[in-house]
Design goal:
Blueprint: E1 3-10, H1 16-25, E2 30-34, H2 47-52, H3 54-73, H4 88-113, E3 116-119, E4 121-124, E5 129-133, E6 139-149, E7 153-155, E8 168-169, E9 183-187, H5 191-202, E10 206-210, H6 222-234, E11 238-240, E12 244-251, E13 254-261, E14 264-270, E15 272-275, E16 279-281, E17 314-316, H7 327-341, E18 355-357, E19 362-367, H8 370-375, E20 380-386, H9 391-395, E21 402-408, E22 414-421, H10 424-436, H11 441-445, H12 456-465
Parallel strand pairs: 1-2, 1-6, 2-3, 6-17, 8-15, 9-10, 9-15, 10-11
Antiparallel strand pairs: 4-5, 5-6, 7-16, 12-13, 13-14, 18-19, 19-22, 20-21, 21-22
Helix pairs in contact: 1-4, 1-7, 3-4, 3-5
Active site: 451 (proton acceptor)
Protein name: Dihydrolipoyl dehydrogenase
Domain FAD/NAD(P)-binding: 5-334
């Protein structure tokens, strides 16, 4: 006799555990299946994000940023800090402590909301039956009125550089180094590659980032991307664009890398090599042939705009479906699906999902880039404001970067909001809120911002859309 639930969620990452909690809050009998175990074999909730992704990487980014500040930036501010050092083992212990606290917290949230955790590998069968295989190989089948698939993604491995777990690693391995590599190679100048490269560069590694495409951060507004590139290069990150990886071989504890760029064949030697070329949806042994769920040509689960699959009562959210692979996007989809199962009709506004790169300076954006507006033939106005003219940024010794606002020329509605600089991950939320409420640039220009704050740069950029910025010279309008 199988156990029956209103909702069974497969996967307890940011999409899955949030969907499970919301479903339970809406009065649905809910279970959440998770197969993740730690090195000691203990069951873990939270998925990639909490265990080996967003949270541990931000912990190391924050720690390494503080070390870099103390080592290089304190002196010019009048703070004398002699012989600043770091303890890698202690850093890792702190990172792991944060992960333990947050993953354990999900267990507490499940308990308080009435979600049943089921540990093991979940596989969707026909008619919304879910087979769970525990770590001892025992199988049990559960029935559900609705199934939400939230199995996430895993790092892509490329043939020229297969992972060996020691010298050639993925993003997870890059968070486990026990010492700072003297020379570190990173394949991929995307979000993950730049963040991980930054951590180890701040701690003293000589970092080279190899990127196959010729454009730095092509999905980012190029004015912002070029500003960020200058800052990263100034920090010592050697970013090589148009570098196509051709091979990696470990010899005498060194990784010998070969690649091709505009100058021809090149070679480089590294102590460690991080491969961060993207992630692919995790669907291994997930679907039986008669489950009714289909994959698209890229291996993602096919869903409609509301995350519904072609199988009745089966939904999918997060990295395993189309759209950006972002934890907050997965969570929003999880909430939407739970509410739709309960009979409500919410939708995710995919035009208002923020993106963040947690480097220093941070890079964050929402909506359209200037390049996209030009390609679409849309008329637009732009307002920018540099943090170099912001008193709070200057006081914080973090005056690089800018805020950029793009508005539709006819309606003045904000269609793009871009930040490179201090606290960009927090500032971008102002753009998200404005766009969610259909604000015009004038709406922000007429809003009172506290002084002195970094957010005043948003105010000035909004004023600048109409050529009315106060604290910088405005561009002369064409007659």
């Amino acid at each position: 006799m199988s156990d029956k639930y209103d909702v069974i969620v497969i996967g307890a990452g940011p999409g899955g555990y949030v969907a499970a909690i919301k479903a339970a809050q809406l009065g649905l009998k809910t279970a959440c299946i998770e197969s993740w175990t730690d090195k000691e074999g203990k069951n873990r909730l939270g998925g990639t994000c909490l265990n080996v992704g967003c949270i541990p990487s931000k912990a190391l980014l924050e720690i390494s940023h503080k070390y870099e500040e103390a080592s290089h930036d304190f002196a010019e501010q009048g703070i004398i800090a002699k012989e600043v050092g770091f303890d890698i083992a202690k850093m890792m212990k702190r990172k792991e402590g944060i992960v333990d606290q947050l993953t354990g917290g999900i267990g507490g949230l499940f308990k308080s909301n009435g979600v049943t955790p089921i540990y093991g590998h979940g596989k969707l069968l026909a008619n919304r039956n879910v087979e769970v295989t525990d770590k001892d190989g025992k199988k049990k089948t559960y029935e559900a009125e609705n199934v939400i698939i939230a199995t996430g993604s895993r790092p892509i491995q490329i043939p020229p550089a297969p992972f060996d777990g020691t010298h050639i690693v993925d993003s997870e391995g890059a968070l486990e180094f026990t010492e700072v590599p003297k020379r570190l190679g990173v394949i991929g100048a995307g979000v993950i590659g730049l963040e991980l490269g930054s951590v180890w560069a701040r701690l003293g590694a000589e970092v080279t980032v190899l990127e196959a495409v010729d454009t730095f951060l092509p999905v980012v507004d190029q004015q912002v991307a070029k500003d960020a590139l200058k800052q990263f290069q100034k920090q010592g990150l050697n970013i090589v664009l148009g570098a196509r990886m051709t091979g990696a071989e470990v010899k005498r504890k060194l990784v010998n890398v070969t690649y091709e760029d505009s100058k021809g064949k090149q070679e480089a030697k590294f102590d460690k090599l991080i491969v961060a070329v993207g992630r692919r949806p995790y669907t291994d042994n997930l679907l039986s042939e008669d489950s009714g769920v289909k994959l698209d040509e890229r291996g993602f689960i096919f869903v409609d705009d509301n995350c519904k699959t072609e199988a009745p009562g089966v939904w999918a959210v997060g990295d395993v479906v189309r759209g950006p692979m972002l934890a907050h996007k997965a969570s929003e989809e999880g909430v939407m699906v739970a509410e739709r199962i309960a009979g409500h009709k919410p939708q995710v506004n995919y035009d208002c999902i923020p993106n963040v790169i947690y480097t220093s300076p941070e890079v964050a954006w929402v909506g359209k880039t200037e390049q996209e507006m030009k390609a679409e033939g849309e008329e637009y106005n732009v307002g920018t404001f540099p943090f170099a003219a912001n008193g709070r940024a200057m006081a914080a010794n973090a005056a690089s970067g800018m805020v950029k606002i793009i508005a539709d020329a006819k309606t003045d509605r904000i269609v793009g909001f871009h930040v490179v600089g201090p606290q960009a991950s927090e500032i971008v939320a102002q753009g998200v809120i404005a766009m969610e409420f259909g604000s015009s640039a004038e709406d922000l220009a007429l809003t009172c911002f506290a002084h002195p704050t970094l957010s005043e740069s948003v105010h000035e950029a909004a004023l600048g859309v109409a050529g009315g910025a106060i604290h910088i010279a405005n561009r002369r309008k064409k007659k």
